[in-house]
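Chapter review: from sequence to fold.
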Amino acid sequence: MTRVIHTGDTHIGYAQYHSPVRRQDFLDAFAAVIDDAIEGEVDAVVHAGDLFHDRRPELGDLMGTISVLRRLDDAEIPFLAVVGNHESTRGGQWLDLFERLGLATRLGDEATVVGDTAFYGLDHVPVSRRDGLDYAFAEHDTDYAALVAHGLFEPFGYADWDTEEVLAESTVAFDAMLLGDNHTPDVAEVDDTWVTYPGSTERASASEREGRGYNLVTFDADAAGGDDRVEIRRRALDTRPFVFVEVDLRDGEGAARVRETVRQHDLDDAVVLVDVTGDGDPVTPAAIEEFATDEGALIARVTDRREVETDTELDVSFADPEDAVRERIDEMGLSEAALDIEEAVRADTIPDTNVRETVKRRVEERVDDLEAFDRGEPADEDGDEGEAESDEDSEAGHATDDPDRESPDSEDETATTETADTDGQVSMEDYL
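The token string follows.
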């Protein structure tokens, strides 16, 4: 019997709402998973990608992650993982660094055996590069085999990857596919194979209303009745509370009614999201947000969805003014190089005085990589190409609403291969 924790989409380093407290929450949620793994004495922790929120995690996020992984290593529990699209670089991956430190195993086309189960990996591969995948995996001689992959697979929401095709063309018969990318936990059976998402470990957008958690997966060749069995159980995590307040204002009602409704909830250290609808008086979002924080909320954001002296319905979000900017950027279908420059211009971590030099350096680094200047595919009306990597509480960027934007990936055609030489991305050695 082999028992593993299946997790993913931890998005460490995400300063949601520009909040350092929320940034720490994402690392704390990952640490809570590892605590459960150690306490439960599982055989391995399997991470299905997007360990980090973006491909340039800050040093504090890296050191915090290494500290957590060291505790897992001290308990002699292996950490098996694949690379997600948020953290993917065209050079060496951060997962490679952790593997060199002896803290992780990057899964690939060779079997990594834990107990009676062989684990294989499939990093995120953009849709445009999947035609050449041959799903060739090395043989194994264990009772079970599991494929760990990052992407939006059928039959789940926003799917763009044919699960039946993957299973049919794979050279290994998989008993389970342990997936990441979709932040909504779910499980299904496809061609006698269990396919499951554990969901994200922290709420990365306002759409993720249900509690967060992970999967406990058991591969048991000695199950009751003598039948082989794969058992998938959902385990909950105690994460930062989100309070969702919906206020439908009637004629003559306004800010006082909104405050009264907000006051009815437990706001202590919570992220409070207020939706205002109806036909009542105008409401000043900033005043409601200040009221909620005075009542104990960590963060408060107001979205007014009402018609305001116009025949067209407005959907105005005060939670993050950059939402509209990111949406427009997705629609433009910018090249990889252009997205890199856009990130430098708007990044909070780059001082204004250094932006010009940073942009110049990034362009020079990419001059010899013509593919980096090819236009990308713009998002369709449903946002199927996703959002920019460093979104702040956008409803996209995750499969709960819209799938992730395709990040740079390996040029190789096989599902799991060595990455190409760096083309300007910061290397692990240069970063540290």
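Two observations follow directly from the output. Residues 308-323, 379-397, 401-432 have pLDDT under 50 and may be disordered. The chain is about 25% helix and 20% strand.
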